[in-house]
């Protein structure tokens, strides 16, 4: 069973719908008590970094999530702002991140690009795996995923980067640190590519 963490900042229903079609059982957690006996976790997120982190703190789930992920090694997948919360910090805010990934969240700098680009980075873009990883098992080499963001993870440890994309510059769009996985794009909005990735998290990790 996959537990989707609902702290008030995520596209919960869309993720549930994908797993329903895959016949994968899910449940939604809105409190620490709901996280008990979790087998796998999904941490979604939309909006600004500080707003999302404060909502997670206010939900009362943050400390128990850290215990499950860091001590009990429960597999977790962060999506969009959910993966940004896994970093140490963000240029978008002042609150500390969870620190599960050795990274800082930084903003795109379109004024420095040779061709001016709008923010946010919104729409479909190519995703290029940089290493073999079960999260991308069976995902086509020309896979495209849906993005909506102005910030991204800048990893201090290149070994934690498992996929990159390009928007004015090359940027990290998927990470893995042991039982911790994260993607900057929205697999729940990415048609069959995203369905395959979510299936991999459910069945191959």
Largest sheet: 8 strands, mixed
**Share of helix among residues?**
10-25%
> What is the count of DSSP helices, taking H or I runs of 4+ residues?
5
Q: Report the average pLDDT across residues.
A: 96
User: How do the SSEs run, as a string of H and E?
Assistant: EHEEHHEHEEEEEEEEEH
List key phrases describing it.
globular; three-stranded mixed β-sheet; alpha/beta; eight-stranded mixed β-sheet; 5 helices; 23% helix; 29% strand; 205 residues
Detailed description of the structure:
- With 205 residues, the chain is α/β, with parallel strands linked by helices.
- Helix content is 23%, strand content 29%.
- It is built from five helices and 13 strands.
- The longest helix is centred in the last third of the chain and has 13 residues, at 191-203.
- The protein starts with a strand and ends with a helix.
- The mean pLDDT is 96.
Briefly, what is this?
By secondary structure, the protein is α/β, with parallel strands linked by helices.
Question: Secondary structure elements and their pairing?
Answer:
Layout lengths: L1 E4 L6 H10 L4 E4 L10 E4 L5 H10 L3 H10 L4 E4 L1 H4 L4 E2 L12 E5 L13 E6 L1 E2 L14 E6 L1 E5 L5 E6 L3 E8 L2 E4 L7 H13 L2
Parallel strand pairs: 1-2, 1-3, 3-4, 4-13, 5-6
Antiparallel strand pairs: 6-10, 7-9, 8-11, 11-12, 12-13
């Amino acid at each position: 069973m996959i537990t989707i963490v609902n702290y008030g900042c995520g596209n919960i229903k869309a993720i549930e719908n994908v797993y329903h079609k895959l016949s994968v059982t899910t449940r939604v957690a809105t409190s620490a008590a709901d996280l008990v006996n979790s087998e796998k976790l999904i941490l979604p997120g939309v909006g600004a970094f500080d707003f999302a982190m404060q909502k997670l703190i206010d939900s009362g789930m943050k400390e128990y999530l850290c215990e499950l992920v860091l001590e009990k090694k429960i597999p977790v997948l962060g999506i969009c702002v959910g993966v940004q919360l896994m970093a140490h910090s963000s240029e978008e805010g002042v609150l500390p991140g969870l620190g599960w990934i050795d990274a800082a969240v930084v903003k795109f700098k379109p004024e420095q690009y040779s061709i001016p680009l709008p923010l946010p980075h919104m729409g479909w873009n190519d995703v290029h795996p940089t290493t073999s990883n079960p999260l991308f098992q069976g995902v086509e080499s020309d896979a495209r995923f849906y993005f909506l963001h102005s910030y991204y993870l800048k990893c201090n440890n290149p070994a934690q980067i498992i996929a990159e994309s390009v928007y004015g510059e090359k940027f990290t769009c998927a990470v893995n640190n042991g039982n911790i996985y994260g993607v900057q794009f929205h697999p729940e909005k990415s048609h069959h590519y995203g369905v395959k990735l979510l299936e991999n998290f459910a069945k191959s990790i």
